[in-house]
Every structure is written in structure tokens, then in C-alpha cells.
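pls design
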């Protein structure tokens, strides 16, 4: 049974050129199964500018002529009928709407239910900034766990009982996609079943769960510990008490390995690099890995 969503009117605040937007899509195709999107869905996503922290709801293939619905933020999703959405994904470095939706579609087809994609980037525009700056900043935070003195130290989340609004504002300074995920984790009306992160997305999920713990709400934290957490292309450190974790890294993925903690339990996927596009050599096959590793 599928959720009923109101489709909001989305405008393009950046008025980007078609060439630039199609460039984003080409970059996404290098990492994700973009061909899982039909022509109408692809065109809709390409024509809209990415807003980091936005949410795209992807339905399983063939369920609707337009099976991707876009919301600018958490509040719009909830107001539009998305309260019962329970599976989410966060794509990786530089991914635009197209990449985020493609990963969510892969997961929606696997789970046979809608998946919400939290948009983690602006595509080509910030790929290098994220790869060489934002991603490594998040990786540093994850490795330290105590938020060591670095350019990312301004995120310092403070005392365990810090007010939610203060925590979420600090998270937003570094990672708008993490801000959206933290809002979802704080939604008392929602039960999140699974979170899947690829590359920088895995680090964003870890950071959101760290921030949740800093709020000191034991009920929310207990509920979050039941979430099935899956990462691809980055091995990250989750807070204590999170045991439903599966982490996968390609055996030849040096790029993801730079921001991974090899001492943490994970599975190496033979002959796989960082990308998830099954039409390209040396891909990491998300569906095959999930089928072979179900909890």
C-alpha cells in the first residue's frame, strides 16, 4: 500500500542553465543507476535546481508515471502527507536531485515501498568542495567523536541536554542534509525503519545520530536504536548502543577508504570501487549486497 502525497509546486531558485543541470545528471550517472528513472522523472529532476537538505520521495518503478515527488524541506514533507514514510537514504559527494532519486529508486524497488531521499549536494557545483572540504570535515568529526579542534569544531554540539533548536542550528552550519535527517529523527509521529547512506551520506547519518544523542531525549534515542543502518562507500562510527548496523566498502575503493575507519566491523565487497551504477565495471551492487546480508 503506497502513501498519498500532495505534490508541491517547485521553482528553480538558481535559474541554472540546462547545460549545467544536465552536467549534474551526467555526474550522477557515474555513481548511481540513473536509468531506473523514467524520462518524465528524469526531466522533472533535471529542470529543478537542487536544494541541499530537500527530500525526494521515490516510489517503486512502474507504480506511477511520475514516481518522484519533491519537497523543499522536512516541514513541507510532513504537511504534504509524508508522516508515515519510514525509509530514507542519503546519497554521496556531489550528488544532485538525479543521483539522490536514483539511489532511492534502487532501494524502493528492493523494499517495494517508497523511500525518501535526502539531497546531500548541489551536483557538479560543489562536488570538489565537498570531496576536498565538506566530506573530509565530516570524516574528521566522525573519527574524533569528541569534535576535535579543527575548522569543523564550530559544530561542537555542547551538553547532552542542549535544546533541540540550538543543536539543529549547529548541525545545519556544516550539513543541511544532516539537519533534515535530525528533524526526521525528532518527529514523534514517525517510525524510521531504515537509513541507507552512500559516501558522504553515511557520514551525515552518523552525525545526525550523534546530534540526536546530544539532545538527551532518551525516548527518541531508544527509538532510533531500532533503525536498520546501512552504509556503502564509507565505514563510519555510530554512537554507542546502535547495533543494527551493516557497512560495506568496495575492495578497491581507495576514495571511500580515505574517510573510513578500517578498525570498525565492515564487509569488503570484491572487485568493487566507489560507484553504485551496475551498468559500469567495478560497481558495488546495492541490491545484491542487501539480499545477501539481510538482518
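designed seq:
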Amino acid at each position: 500500500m503506497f502513501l498519498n502525497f500532495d505534490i508541491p509546486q517547485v521553482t528553480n531558485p538558481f535559474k541554472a542553465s540546462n547545460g549545467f543541470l544536465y552536467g549534474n545528471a551526467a555526474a550522477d550517472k557515474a555513481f548511481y543507476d540513473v536509468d531506473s528513472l523514467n524520462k518524465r522523472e528524469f526531466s522533472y529532476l533535471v529542470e529543478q535546481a537542487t536544494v541541499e537538505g530537500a527530500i525526494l520521495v521515490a516510489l517503486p518503478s512502474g507504480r506511477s508515471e511520475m514516481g518522484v515527488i519533491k519537497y523543499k524541506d522536512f516541514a513541507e514533507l510532513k504537511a504534504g502527507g509524508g508522516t508515515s514514510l519510514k525509509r530514507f537514504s542519503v546519497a554521496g559527494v556531489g550528488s544532485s536531485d538525479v543521483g539522490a532519486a536514483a539511489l532511492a529508486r534502487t532501494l524502493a524497488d528492493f523494499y517495494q515501498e517508497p523511500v525518501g531521499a535526502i539531497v546531500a549536494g548541489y551536483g557538479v557545483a560543489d562536488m570538489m568542495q565537498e570531496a576536498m572540504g565538506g566530506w573530509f570535515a565530516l570524516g574528521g568529526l566522525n573519527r574524533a567523536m569528541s569534535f576535535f579542534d579543527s575548522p569543523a569544531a564550530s559544530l561542537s554540539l555542547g551538553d547532552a541536554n542542549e535544546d533541540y533548536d540550538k543543536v539543529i542550528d549547529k548541525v545545519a552550519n556544516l550539513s543541511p542534509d544532516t539537519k533534515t535527517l535530525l528533524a526526521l529523527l525528532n518527529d514523534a509521529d514517525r517510525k524510521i525503519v531504515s537509513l541507507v547512506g552512500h559516501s558522504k551520506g553515511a557520514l551525515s547519518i552518523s552525525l545526525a545520530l550523534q546530534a540526536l544523542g546530544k539532545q538527551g531525549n532518551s525516548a527518541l534515542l531508544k527509538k532510533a536504536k531500532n533503525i536498520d543502518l546501512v552504509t556503502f562507500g564509507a565505514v563510519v562510527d555510530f554512537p554507542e548502543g546502535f547495533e543494527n548496523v551493516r557497512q560495506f566498502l568496495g575492495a578497491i575503493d581507495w576514495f571511500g577508504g580515505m574517510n573510513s575507519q578500517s578498525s570498525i566491523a565492515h564487509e569488503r565487497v570484491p572487485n568493487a570501487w566507489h560507484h553504485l551504477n551496475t551498468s559500469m565495471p567495478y560497481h558495488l551492487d546495492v541490491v545484491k549486497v542487501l539480499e545477501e546480508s539481510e538482518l
